[in-house]
Specification:
The protein has 456 residues and is an alpha/beta fold. The protein folds into 3 domains: 90 residues, Rossmann fold, CATH 3.40.50; 206 residues, Mur-like, catalytic domain (UDP-N-acetylmuramoyl-L-alanine:D-glutamate ligase); 139 residues, Protein-Tyrosine Phosphatase, Chain A, CATH 3.90.190.20. The chain has 17 helices and 20 strands. The chain has a 9-stranded mixed beta sheet, sandwiched between helices. It has a 6-stranded mixed beta sheet with strand order 15-16-20-17-18-19, sandwiched between helices. A 5-stranded parallel beta sheet has the order 3-2-1-4-5. It starts with 10 loop residues before the first strand and ends with a helix.
Length: 456
């Protein structure tokens, strides 16, 4: 990492722990800062704070006392999950105290190029694809995944050498806390309405996403989804070199024409050869191909890599087959849009959909067009009655209500025949029955594996 001196003997407040906060605190401590960590969780239930204390880092736990700001800090490094409406954050900003996120620190110490990926949907899949493509035929260095994908950016940047690339998934929350952050290549997969409870308005959400290119120059490249008029308009305001991708028209980047994928007129592969289904995954692949080509990855390596990529866990992930029935885990589909995208990748006449979960008060009228033609639907959780109504409106003949994901797998298999597909794509959050979407997806996989053992 770069040995910077910017933080030597400066008082820095790290607000909120979790993985990124711990990494930021340790890095700042190593860089000579006088670090105070403040976390809401009580000390006796806070192993992260206990660990930092043993390193000689000051910790304040059990709340976010505004009085901390009387201590003349030079800046705050904030956990992305803490909203800007937090009283301590609001007070800091009124004092013109810089409030950064950990990805800014990562950029400041990184010796290698950063490829930043953001968007409403597809970030993790696209980030994973890019990492695989850049490592597939690599002779020196490594493409290292970082950021919102689960590896603290500052920790990865500290370990990376000049020969590496950091492929960094970035949320809107993280991008709100940047100052000098400048990726060599940026990707915006798409922009839809999301996280309005955090950002307050769609305009503020879009502004946060678009911040990824704030410091980019003509020698940098930004990969944009040309299917979205909004991104076409925003592209007029960036200094970066624009590389578009589209499934709808031929562009000066990656595009689909007649079921074939091209990059700047060079044939890459058939869309049907992609290892993951769905129109959204074609878009993700196009974005990843743009980055791979910018990094001079050969076409045959791109094709081979994307053919065998079967998805990120819980995101339209192929998980197995039982007597001719294929199973896909899309537990990450916690909203209607994500399920619509998943449904677009399958033949509805042989598709059995498993859906349901936390009731957030919305109806499922928007989902009805995407449900039409689905062979059967198995519903569970708080929203099963609302989804039942949508399924009836869509004309689905076989609708079954069940207890949870585990029983849904059994019900779906009992109804299925050879060559059917059983897809978990809930269109809802998991919190009514499962602590998170990952555990819901694991329950689906476990139920399938138990069924496989029985059906041997």
């Amino acid at each position: 990492m770069k040995k910077i001196t910017d933080y030597e003997n400066k008082k820095v407040l790290v607000l909120g722990l979790a993985k990124s906060g711990v990494s930021a605190a340790k890095l700042l401590h190593e860089l000579g800062a006088l670090v105070t960590v403040n976390d809401f969780k009580q000390f006796d239930q806070n192993p992260e704070a206990q660990d930092l204390l043993t390193l000689g880092i000051r910790v304040v736990t059990g709340g976010h006392p505004i009085e901390l700001l009387d201590e003349d800090f030079s800046l705050i490094v904030k956990n992305p999950g803490i909203p800007y409406t937090n009283p301590l954050v609001e007070k800091a900003m009124s004092m013109a105290l810089p409030v950064l996120t950990e990805v800014e620190l990562a950029y400041q110490i990184a010796e290698c190029p950063i490829i930043g990926i953001t968007g409403t949907n597809g970030k993790t899949t696209t980030t994973t694809m890019i990492g695989l493509l850049l490592n597939a035929d690599r002779k020196t260095g490594t493409a290292r995944l970082a950021g919102n994908i689960g590896y603290p950016a500052s920790e990865v940047a500290e370990e990376a050498s000049a020969e590496d690339d950091i492929v960094m998934e970035l949320s809107s929350f993280q991008l709100m806390g940047i100052k000098t952050f400048r990726p060599k290549i940026a990707v915006i997969t798409n922009i839809y309405e999301a996280h309005l409870d955090y950002h307050g308005s769609r305009d503020e959400y879009v502004k946060a996403k678009w911040a990824i290119q704030e410091n980019m120059q003509e020698s940098d490249a930004i990969v944009l989804n040309w299917n979205q008029q909004e991104l076409q308009e925003l592209s007029k305001t960036t200094k970066a070199n624009i590389i578009p991708f589209s499934t709808k028209e031929q562009v000066d980047g990656a595009y689909v024409l007649g079921g074939k994928i091209y990059y700047k007129n060079d044939y890459i592969m058939e869309t049907m050869e992609l290892g993951v289904p769905g129109s959204h995954n074609i878009e993700n692949a196009l974005a990843a191909i743009c980055v791979a080509k910018l990094k001079a990855v050969p076409t045959d390596i791109i094709r081979q890599t994307l053919m065998v990529f079967t998805g990120v866990p819980h995101r339209t992930q192929y998980v197995g087959e039982i007597k001719g029935r294929k199973f896909y885990n899309d537990s990450k589909a916690t909203n209607i849009l994500a399920t619509e995208m998943a449904l677009s990748g399958f033949d509805h006449s042989s598709l059995i959909l498993l859906a349901g979960g936390l009731d957030r008060g919305n109806s499922f009228d928007e989902l009805v067009p995407s449900l039409k033609g689905v062979k059967a639907i198995i519903l569970f959780g708080e929203t099963k009655d609302k989804l039942h109504k949508a399924a009836v409106e869509a004309g689905i003949e076989t609708i079954r209500l069940t207890e949870n994901v585990q029983t849904a797998v059994q019900d779906a298999y009992d109804f299925s025949v050879k060559n059917d597909t059983i897809l978990l794509s809930p269109a809802c959050a998991s919190w009514d029955q499962y602590p998170n979407f990952e555990l819901r997806g694991e329950a689906f996989i476990q139920a399938m594996n138990q069924l496989k053992d029985i059906e041997k």
